[in-house]
Structure formats: structure tokens, C-alpha cells
Amino acid sequence: MARIGLDARMLDRTGIGTYLTELLPRLPGQLNAQEQLVVFGSAADRDRLRAQLRPADEVQTVSPRIYGPEEQITLKRAYARARLDLLHAPHYNQPINSTPRMVLTINDLIPLVFPRLPGNAATKAYNRLLLKRAVHRAARLIVPSAHTGRDLVERLGVKPERIVMIPDAAGPQFSPQRDPTAERSWLTRLGISDPYLLYLGQWKPYKNVPLLIDAFKDLVRDGRALQLVIGGRDDPRYREVSAAARDERIRLTGWLPVIALPHLIRAAAAFVLPSLYEGFGLPVLEAMACGTPVVCSRVTSLPEVAGDAAQYWEPASGRAGLVEAIRAALQPDTARRLRDLGLAQAARFSWDETAQRTVEVYRSLLS
User: Fold this and answer.
1) For residue 195, is the peptide bond before it cis, meaning its omega torsion is within 30 degrees of 0?
2) Alpha carbons 204 and 117: distance in angstroms, whole number
3) How far apart are CA 347 and CA 167, in angstroms?
4) How many Å apart are CA 64 and CA 49, to the nearest integer?
5) 32-84: per-residue pLDDT in tens?
6) Residues 6 or more apart from 128 whose CB is under 8 A from it?
7) Which of 197, 192, 122, 134 is nearest to 162 (CA)?
8) Which domains does the chain have, with CATH numbers?
């Protein structure tokens, strides 16, 4: 019996939590009777995790603070007690040494690419240490894009044969099937009016939200009836974004429940992601799966994800170029074309295939 561990402690986090939410329930159907899944999660998630597993699989409760130094002791002991043959870690916050043979998913190298992001210097240095140690100790590295794979090779000297590219996908809740009653309920609750542009994500500098705000103001200078909706948790460190709330045409929604996202995306005139760096860019794929026109940067992983189905913005063209890209996507003929291309592009990605290929990675190391 091969015992395969999965660290699911970050189930409720954005990004990694989405990966776990979609991957975990699909793994039992890919594993055979001689492969046992041992899932590590918080006490609060225990019942939720148990419901997604087979009777022979296990859930073990571990609750060290995420990124806290106690992870080094608590996880090391939990993995040793579980007698694992293989561990799949969806993030780099793992014991620096003495873990089982490990498969590590790396979505991006943001701590290395943007070392000057706001935050405690010691915490950032610790995270960079964890990232580097985990990458160099992992037997296999799963990445969602060729771009992240190249980053590992160029920035950390990883041998390409250790890297396996397995892309993410839009979940089944992201579909073009509209529910006008639910859409209107969410728009009313959040003070959003049609038509609107939608951005979902963090406010960190590389996400380029201030530029989006400036481009939007240029776009509506001629009196165009349009609103900009910025969804995601407020971050007081970025006052330029917070200050945008003074403009009645801009809505900062704060944190949004997962159930609201498909409705807000479907009702949007366009989804805009002017980011300067992505490891994958899942919101782009989710918007396409909903049939919403997408405007995004032609940088890093985004062309891999969006293919020919996005209205691209070239960062070198600056604010004026972003205005023109959004304006183009709002044209009825272009919007219809982007919708059709986007639906076809999103359909090329599948969480079922992601789970199947992930189990193939496990077996390549267990054989």
C-alpha cells in the first residue's frame, strides 16, 4: 500500500485554496486500491475533507500557523507519524528538511521576482528561504504554465527534467449559463450598476490596479455610462487604490464570497487584468468560461492561458494603450468574437485532466 500525503491546510486561501478545492475531490477517482491518500488539514476542515475521500483514505488534523515557524516542527512530526511514501505540497511552506519524498506545486516565483513588495523584511526573507529550500528538495515540481517552468530554470537553476507542466482550469461553476435573478441580487447588494468593467484580485503593485483606474477615468471622460468594479480584499497599504472609492463610478467591493464570482463575471461588460506578472492567470480563464470578453496583458503566462481569445494590452503602450484595448473589447462585434473564442479556449482546460496527470506524477516516483 502506497501512502500519499496531501497538505490541504490552505484550503480556504485564495489561489492555492482554489487549486486544492478543485484537485482534491478528483484524486480518489484516479487512485487505485493500492494507493491511499492521507490528507493533512485544519480541524475546522476535517468533515469537509473526509466527505471527499474514500473509506480507506485518511484525514489527519494539523493546525500550525500558515507560514509560522511552528510549521517546521508540527509538519515534520505529522509527516513522520503518517509514514508517507510520498508527499504532495501545493505550496512551499514546508519543513526545511526531513520530509518524505515530495511533489511540490509552484504557481509562481513572486517572492523572488518582486522582493521589494510591502511587508516585514524578516518575513519576506523567511519566505524566500522556504521557497528555495522546497524547490531544491522536491523530487518533482508541478507548474501551471511554461512561464513558471522557465522562471524555475532561470532563477533557481532547476533542471528542466524535474519540472512537469500541468495547467489549472476554470471550475464547473464558471459557465455562460446566466441566472438574472441572482445577478441582479448581487449587483444590488454591492451597489453595482450596468454596464461595468470588472477586476478581481489583489492590489499589489505588479497587478497594475492604479493604471487600470486611470485608464478607466480616461475612458469615461467623454460621458460614457460605465462603472469600474474592483473586487477583492481591501489592502490599506495601497492608498492610491483605496482613494478611488471617492469616485462614484468606481466600486471597491472588498472580499467577495466564492458563490458571487460567476454572477459578477457573467454580468460584466468586460473582465480586465492589466497585471505585469502572473504564474498562470486563472481569473482570465474563469471569465472566458463565463462568456465574458477579456482584456489582459501580453506578458508572462497570460498568452499561454488566453491564447487568441483575449483583447491584449501591450504594457509598453501605457495608459493610452490600455484605454484603446478596453474600448476595442466593448465594441459589439469584438465582444461577440471574444465571447466565442473565450468559451472555446476555456474548454481546452480541465480539472479532471489535471487530477489524472497529477496522479501520473505520483506514480512515476512511486514505481
Assistant:
1) yes
2) 8
3) 13
4) 17
5) 999 999 999 999 999 999 999 999 999 999 989 999 999 999 999 999 999 99
6) 111, 112, 115
7) 134
8) 2-169+350-366 (3.40.50.2000), 180-346 (3.40.50.2000)
